[in-house]
Amino acid sequence: MSYGDAMNARAKSGERRAEIVRAALEVIAERGYRGASLAAVAERVGLTQQGLLHYFPTKDALLVAVLEERDQWDAVPDSRWRVDLLASLVEYNAMRPAIIQTFSALLGESVTEGHPARDYFTERYVRVRASMAGVLRAEYGDRLPNGLTPERTAPLLVAVMDGLQYQWLLDPESVDMPGAFRDFLALLGEA
Amino acid sequence: MSYGDAMNARAKSGERRAEIVRAALEVIAERGYRGASLAAVAERVGLTQQGLLHYFPTKDALLVAVLEERDQWDAVPDSRWRVDLLASLVEYNAMRPAIIQTFSALLGESVTEGHPARDYFTERYVRVRASMAGVLRAEYGDRLPNGLTPERTAPLLVAVMDGLQYQWLLDPESVDMPGAFRDFLALLGEA
DNA sequence: TCGATTACCTGTAGAGCGGTAGGTTTCGTA
DNA sequence: TACGAAACCTACCGCTCTACAGGTAATCGA
Predict the structure, then answer these.
(1) Contacts of B46 (CB under 8 A, 6+ apart)
(2) Which one of A167, B44, B86, B149 has the largest count of C-beta atoms within 10 Å of its C-beta?
(3) What is the pLDDT of residue A191?
């Protein structure tokens, strides 16, 4: 038996790790983090569970890699965001249910005690709210309807995005996520 | 050894079941449903895991009981809801983090495949959206800002409530959940 | 007072989990 | 071509989980 015959030169370490992270994304989407087993992830990339542990020494280390990938995924510089780009982002998300399912499941789990993603989401929300406040200010100035400030509106914007995702994941036929999000933006557009 | 000496006549079956459901609520809040073990719930009410199974023959049966309790908890007849009562509800929720943590964790898990609470949440959202549309119509009539209808606004209202809960659970210091919710309602109040 | 039902218990099966130990093959490099 | 590191494997440990089987003590209605 020989391992490297057919796959020889390709499959450098980095590639393999990326494959694994991608598989982990999928498995977490299907079963959540607690429900995801290393063996299930490993099988999806043609490894044994112990083979996977060669790349990520613990389950938590794998989760960290998953979260890091996400960070770099939506790392658009603040200054480049605009409200209509947000609408496009939601539209784009609506075409990639697997990924948003992964992070919706993780977010839900993360509110439980000692969850390894808890700090990540907490800090992420702080950043995202600040970022969204900036976007709102750039678009509408300091004055939003009803005397709201961008800082007070940002949590609402984020809440709408997250909340719609759950409704949409559970029942995509009944919920027009991008449409609803545009409705919300329109609400902010009224001076 | 005798079991019924000290606790004799009290602790009828129904009471015991209610105790167990309450304990399950707590454990699910702390660890999620998948992470919650029957043994942990049992211990909290002074039973063995097998003793608990006498009342609920499977783990799923216990979850069903938890969800049923919730249903009857917020079973206010549609006609009696009003928008200012919603604001009060959110304020009330902000004083009971354990319960909203339970259902936020369950909602997150429920988007995963084959989760036993998935149907429950899907159907619940259908009902709640319809109910909220009714509330909005009663309060604002058919015309909301920007030509929105109550039916199109209801998903947003629900999304804001859910989404704010996650932000608040993760970082209660930074997020004024009731205040933010009132801000959102004010947005709808503009004609 | 008896007999069924209820309310638990102990014991255990059976599966899955993350992780360790320690091997062997392959590959890159000198 | 020799050697160390990388890439995987098998074997296994200890734990936890749900659930079943079958027991015993208390309770309650006839």
Answers:
(1) none
(2) A167
(3) 55
Spanning CA of B107 to C1' of D20, the rounded length in angstroms is 31
Residue B9 has what pLDDT? 40
List chain B residues with CB under 8 Å of A156. Answer: 160, 164, 180, 183-184, 187
A101 contact residues in B (CB cutoff 8 A): 111-112
Q: From the CA of B133, how many Å to the C1' of D18?
A: 42
At a CB cut-off of 8 Å and minimum separation 6, what does A82 contact? A135, A138, A139
Name the pLDDT band for A9 (thresholds 50, 70, 90).
Answer: very low
Q: Could you tell me which chain A residue has the CA closest to the CA of B97?
A: A111
Q: Is the pLDDT of residue A47 over 70?
A: yes
Q: How far apart are CA B2 and CA B8, in angstroms?
A: 11
Nearest CB to A111 within list B105, B179, B183: B105
List, for residues A66-119, the tens digit of each pLDDT value: 999 998 877 776 767 889 999 999 999 999 999 999 999 999 999 999 999 999
Q: Which residues of B touch A161 (CB under 8 A)?
A: 159, 163
Decide which of 1.10.10, 1.10.357, 1.20.120, 2.60.40 is the CATH code for B75-191. 1.10.357
Mean pLDDT of B139-143: 91
Biggest CA–CA distance in chain B, Å, is 72
Superfamily of domain A8-70: Homeodomain-like (1.10.10.60)
A1, pLDDT greater than 80: no
pLDDT over threshold 90, residue B76:
no
Superfamily of domain B1-73: Homeodomain-like (1.10.10.60)
What percent of chain A has pLDDT above 70? 91
Place of tokens 């036993």: B116
C1' of D30 to CA of B38 (Å)? 38
Residues 18-57/A with CB < 7 A to strand D: 42, 46-48, 50-51, 54-55
B170/A106 CB distance under 8 A: no
- Report the residue from A113, A160, A188 with minimal CB separation from B31: A113
For domain A74-191, the CATH class is mainly alpha
* Domain definitions of chain B by residue range: 1-73, 75-191
